[in-house]
Amino acid sequence: MSAERLAELSDLFVVAAVLLYVVAMVGFAVDLAFGRTRLDRATDRATDRATDRAADGEPVEARRPVAVGAAVRDGESSATSEPASVTSEASVAAGAGAAEAGAGAVGTASGPTAPNVPARAGTVALALAWLGWAANFGALVTRGLAADRWPWGNMYEFVVAICFAAVTAFLVTQIRHNVRFLGAFVMVTAALGLGLAVKVFYTVAGPVVPALDSYWIAIHVTAAIIATGLMTMAGVSGILYLVRGDGASRLPARADLERVAHRAIVFAFPLWTFAVIAGALWADRAWGRYWGWDPKEVWAFITWVAYAAYLHAKATAGWKGRAATIVQLVAFGCLMFNLIGVNIFIDGLHSYADVD
Amino acid sequence: MSVEELERKRAPERASFGPVAWARWVWRTLTSMKTALILLFLLALGSVPGSLVPQRGVEPDKVARLYEQSPALAAWYDRFQLFEVFTSVWFAAIYLLLFTSLIGCVIPRTATYVRELRRKPPAAPKNLSRLPHTAAFETGLDDGPAVEQAARRLRRLRFRVVTGDGWVSAEKGYLRETGNLFFHVALLGILLAIAGGSLYGYRGNVLVVEGDGFANTVAAYDRFFPGSQVSAESLEPFSFQLQDFKVAYQVTDDKRGQALDYSAHLKVNDSPQAPARDYDLKVNDPLEIDGTQTYLIGNGYAPVFKVTDGKGQVAFEGPVACLIEDKATMTSGCVVKVPDAQPSQLGFLLRFLPTSVPLTDGNHASAFPGELNPEVQVLGAFSGDLGVRSGKPQSVYELAEPEVLKKLKPVLMGTDMPKPLAVGQSVDLPGGLGKLEYIGVKEWITLQMAYDPGRMPALLAAGTAVVAIALSLMIRRRRVFVRIAGGRAEVGGLTRTEGSATGFAEEFAEIVKVLSAAGDKDVR
Ligand code: HEM
């Protein structure tokens, strides 16, 4: 296929991804708004939910003697026949106990006879999200083939890749832990991100300037993109955390949101550290100094310090919860400013944005 | 109340808040987690003006422009060292406090950590069912051997194990704290490496025209920024000649005119005695000679001119490096100064068009950055004292200071001669003042030389930091207890770290599977 055809195909893939994300978002929203899926979760997904919760230093619920007592008794009955299976049974039961004793969200588990339309909407949404993910992936691949290089050489490609990374972060997390409650918000973020990329940052596929023509782009930018994707998921959780009040709500429980955000940042922070250092190595190759306080470098540093502050806040008495979430969102704001603001408002050596 | 009485009344208070107590209070506060958090905030906040206000070390020209445009604002910026945020006193105060706090934090934590490493895991609690993760199974053994078997199996899973009467206590994940400590120490290492590099390293820029050479001496640099411990003798004595410089451009599509590759062909002598070798210098691929790196950072055109003065003597001949006015088309502005011309000095303002095309209005412009049709427009020619010998420093890109320029006599203006010169053409000045010939085109490159002995240490420290922070964040400290009584084993587990306990449930299940496996074979 010719480069032009591939580039056109890439643009089509982006549009498809946006549409799929939007439809998936609706599905997730239905699941969230009308769902009796809390019940669903409390039985099917109890294992990982409850044990996560317990393992996350929230042993209060899990320690409830009733729940655990039941677990052990359950285990006892079948212990003789198959010892190894004990644990799973035990933790399912313990999990159910913990989940029930948990936040208000779990409390909505009632009315088991209603036809489970919202849950099905959620499942369909998940499938659509994967399709959108595939389209997003296709957009990146065809773009890379069209330009014959790594497909993150300018702002447009960078934003498309970050949306892809954010959705990937969500879907991969979803495989092991039920974070479906985030779906609608991650989808809307990705759809808006892609829309912004197409409407504001679009550039035709083509070669990059020699300074960007280096294997370091694969290392440095890829790490930055993955970290940004994870931090975007954390940012979405953080915003929801603040939007949601205390008490019962359609929105996911605060503890869940906080946990998702923290987990994402725990992965993202070392990656971001690595990305910044790889950037310094590249700068050392390209510009003759590994750190020169170029605006992009300044903001990468600010972002890094801000996320370090978040991790510290998580470990500081009196700063957990709301305060830590605010710190996290400030850090996310710095990340976004570095991504968009610095490229547009401040010119420096990193002016690869290629935005008219 | 007498003074003495007052003194006596205050005495106990002072005893509790004497200098030692104060110092201790300050130290405690400084090394508290909350202070670290606030200092981190300040560090981030303090960096912000560094990206919004032009920095002297990065964009000196913008700083100068700000001084011209709004001197009052510039003066205020200067007062707060906002043109040098990252070397300012207040920024240094923030990070020095932060790092003091860091040291004050790391030392006691290291001591605690070493003590913990030596300490054995605590005895198993009485009631395991209160732990977040629990399970139970029948051992099928007598209790003594069952305890031993559990201990053996946990050891095989690389737990640190202690046994007691009917119980086993095991712990692992000490690397977490190791990672955390190494990370914080590595940050100190990075700071020291940067400081060392800036004391013992240097940086310099030079512009070289095709055919010219460079020898690494202080005098050869256009700009030179030595660290305070750098002397002229410490420069590596290499030299090279720029044989040829080439740029490849995209010629089709929307991206027409975009540079694709720069390549400078050098003949390099690693030392005065060493034989010359060929080297292709490219972007992202510096020339390294014994720790000194040479980078290709810019390029432009240097048309070659010959000026014959009013007396028929050749007063100037050679390439003139032009300043780029438009990056997309490489339209460049050139200045030719001929202080040796007789009877009066001459100066020319020219515009270089690498790919000159006529416009409909009769003017000319460059349509492409490569030299497909390199032509030169004469914008003006002047005679009179250029002030070159006044002793004042002069820019080679400026004909003269405005006040000097006013006194010069214009002999030719661009409007008189809109058609540009092609290579080989010349223009005669009116009044027999002389002649300017446009002989050919060369290119110039700008190079940056950098010697930074802190590079490698900084890289090592940074690498350590990445590995250590990953360990610190990913590893969880966890404990597993087993109580055995009457052929029945109860297992309990917990993680000791908040947040990063992802997936301990799975691991716990796995551990219980290993522990409860039947028979003597210690399955995995
Ligand atoms: C140079 C600035 C600093 C940076 C960039 C930094 C960064 C970090 C990061 C990213 C973590 C998370 C790792 C983890 O949770 O294990 C962390 C943890 C920690 N830091 Fe720092 N830090 C700095 C200074 C300090 C200072 C000054 C102190 C002492 C007052 C300190 C004490 C701690 C402690 C106690 C933890 C462990 C928290 C926990 O157990 O989760 N740090 N630091």
Automatic annotation (TrEMBL), chain A:
Main subcellular localisation: membrane
The keyword Membrane is assigned to this record: yes
Matches recorded under Pfam families: Cytochrom_C_asm
Transmembrane regions: 12-34, 124-146, 152-172, 179-202, 214-243, 264-283, 298-313, 325-346
Domain of life the protein comes from: Bacteria
InterPro entries, alphabetized: Cyt_c_assembly, Cyt_c_biogenesis_CcsA, Cyt_c_biogenesis_CcsA/CcmC
Compartments (UniProt record): Membrane
Membrane topology: Multi-pass membrane protein
GO MF entries: heme binding
A single cellular component GO annotation: plasma membrane
Keyword check for Acyltransferase: no
Swiss-Prot/TrEMBL keywords: Cytochrome c-type biogenesis, Membrane, Transmembrane, Transmembrane helix
Coiled coil location: none
Cytochrome c assembly protein domain: residues covered: 152-350
GO terms for biological process, alphabetical: cytochrome complex assembly
Protein name in the entry: Cytochrome c-type biogenesis protein CcsB
UniProtKB/TrEMBL annotation, chain B:
Gene Ontology biological process terms from the UniProt entry: cytochrome complex assembly
Main localization of the protein described in the UniProt heading: membrane
InterPro entries: Cyt_c_bgen_Ccs1/CcsB/ResB, ResB-like_domain
Keywords: Cytochrome c-type biogenesis, Membrane, Transmembrane, Transmembrane helix
Pfam families assigned: ResB (PF05140)
Residue intervals of the ResB-like domain: 33-508
Name of the molecule in the record: Cytochrome c biogenesis protein
